[in-house]
Amino acid sequence: MPAASHSADRRRPPEPLPLTVLTGFLGAGKTTLLNRLLKDEALSQTAVIINEFGDVALDHLLVEYIGDNMVLLQSGCLCCAMRGDLVDALETLLRDLDNRRCTFRRVLLETTGLADPAPVLHTAMAHPYLVLRYRLDGVLTVVDCVNGEATLDAHAEAVKQAAVADRIVLTKTDLADDQQRERIVARLRALNPAAPILDAAKGEATAERLLNCGLYDPERKIPDVKKWLATEAYADDHHHHHHDVNRHDEHIRSFVLTADVAIPAGTLEMFLELMRATHGDKLLRLKGIVKLAEMPDTPVVVHGVQHVFHPTARLERWPDDDHRSRLVFITRDLPERTVRELFEAFLGAAAIDRPDRAALTDNPLIPFGGADR
Description:
Rossmann fold; globular; 17 strands; disordered C terminus
């Protein structure tokens, strides 16, 4: 019996590897930040994926070539070039790891030459094998303080990068005047109220503050829903500024929907599917925690980027005393009112379909706390 148990342990799949996406528009300073991060002990045993070695100045960090597209860095990191398909690069890393040809504990992908981070996020969230072996730890977006305003004005892709970020790194602040810095910070906070803005010139963009910004703390193995959702950042109305159709960022909206009632799983599924099918191209990012009527004590986590949704993950328990369903939306040309009315319509339909309004134990629409279990 112990032998069988030991065999089962050997078959248990490995913990998913955290994947960090480093993005930012051309000239923002991604490579400078990458060089600095790779010298940090926190990134030892990290696999770094770049488009081409020749595109970034990592020469002073190179130690030796260990494969056709792989080098070992002085920091202890492994660096590989992505000359084609991202899926191939990620799968190659996994094969080398599983065959013990290399060792790493996380992956950092720098999206040089890839303005829109959505395809990368789609790969991490939807590929049937990679979604089992990698978990998205966070999106880091680098913004140039000197040229950032002009870049946001000229390129809708740069606006999307800032809007979907989990952390924003502001570079070249030492070359900008106070007014430039105040304007770009205000603009970034309006675009993305929840993402902390870190000043690289002041040494704020450290590995400690940039890594582990996903749902799970890899050290404690528990979800930090409050940090991941950051719903408090959307409570103020300061990020809803005057509408100007000539600015790309005026098309971006961010808001939170909450529900004090448990939601039937079928209702949630239909709502998300309608959002994906009808508004997928406008749904830049969706994150949320939901109390299901069928299993109210074990909430599910939802995460979507445009048309692609990560498989829902069930938590063992509520992480804190807030048992409301909360959905954070970041949209482009999709008003909050449209999403809110659709959401409320689905909740209303679920209430009408409930045949037994007096049954408290399993009633999916009883306010939380209305029936203790």
